[in-house]
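A further point concerns the way the authors explain their paired sequence and structure data. The central task, working out the structure tokens from the amino acid sequence alone, is never made concrete. I therefore recommend that a typical entry be quoted early in the introduction. An entry of this sort, consisting of the sequence and the corresponding backbone structure tokens, reads as follows:
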Amino acid sequence: MGIGLAWFRYQPASTPVFRGVEQTMGLEVEVAGGNLNARWAPASGAHGYELQTFAADGQLMESIPAKGTSVAIELRAAAAPAYVEVVALDDFGQTMLRSQCVRL
């Protein structure tokens, strides 16, 4: 008769590698006087952020890096974006969280 011994090691929960679409961050956008002002709450562990602007057809127009939680840009009438979103970046520059795409 043998004795079985089960051994396991406790591993605390870690941050998931897969970051799904269910993890979104809020984005507040205001357009006034030819300027776009965007602000968002800080994301835990974010190394930086990018405000991304998109044309009406969904093409990326510009990606504006930000260390803080707000960006102000001047809008050009001929090339004004139709949508904006913000992404939080980790230490490797990979997207951690993404906001909803906001229509302007």
Observations:
- The chain is about 0% helix and 45% strand.
- Strands lie at 24-25, 28-32, 35-39, 48-54, 60-66, 70-74, 83-89, 95-99, 102-103.
- The chain has a mean pLDDT of 83.
- The two ends are 74 Å apart (CA to CA).
